[in-house]
């Protein structure tokens, strides 16, 4: 992954370009923690050679895995970066399109880029924190933290 700071004022804006074989969730997490990002959001487009989506099963309180093992277009990637236990935490959802035009979406758990993924990440001056939610078991944004 390559990155470039493209704007800096009250907030920083970065362009991130992922290459074939890059795993975007791991790379985003490393990048976010190196820069201590929080209160950030991002969008992206590109393509994956494979992807694992997640669907949160409310009754079981866990993500059900949805593996897709073929080339797909990233139609929409959106996410945020907050702080959990003092570390930057990446949370992303993605919609991918298959060759037949069908679309699949969910929580982005893992993927491999092919040939590229282009992401624009914006860090706001106010950092957001996540705290565990008793009902779901998920760390949710806590506006009071």
Secondary-structure topology with pairs:
Blueprint: E1 2-8, E2 12-19, H1 24-34, E3 40-57, E4 62-68, E5 72-84, E6 87-97, E7 103-123, E8 129-132, E9 139-142
Antiparallel strand pairs: 1-2, 2-7, 3-4, 3-5, 3-7, 5-6, 6-7, 8-9
Which short descriptors sum up this protein?
60s Ribosomal Protein L30, Chain: A; 145 residues; seven-stranded antiparallel β-sheet; 8% helix; mainly beta
Q: What would you say this structure looks like, in words?
A:
- This protein is mostly beta strands and 145 residues long.
- It has one domain: 2-Layer Sandwich (60s Ribosomal Protein L30, Chain: A).
- It contains 1 helix and 9 strands.
- Strands 1, 2, 3, 4, 5, 6 and 7 form a 7-stranded antiparallel sheet that branches. A two-stranded antiparallel sheet has the order 8-9.
- β3 (40-57) and β4 form a beta hairpin.
- The radius of gyration is 15 Å and the shape is flat.
- The model has no long low-confidence stretch (mean pLDDT 93).
**Helical percent range?**
under 10%
From the coordinates shown, what is the CATH architecture?
Answer: 2-Layer Sandwich
Order of helices and strands: EEHEEEEEEE
Number of strands: 9
Q: Round the Cα radius of gyration to an integer and report it.
A: 15 Å
What's the helix count? 1
Brief overview:
The protein has one helix at 24-34, and strands at 2-8, 12-19, 40-57, 62-68, 72-84, 87-97, 103-123, 129-132, 139-142.
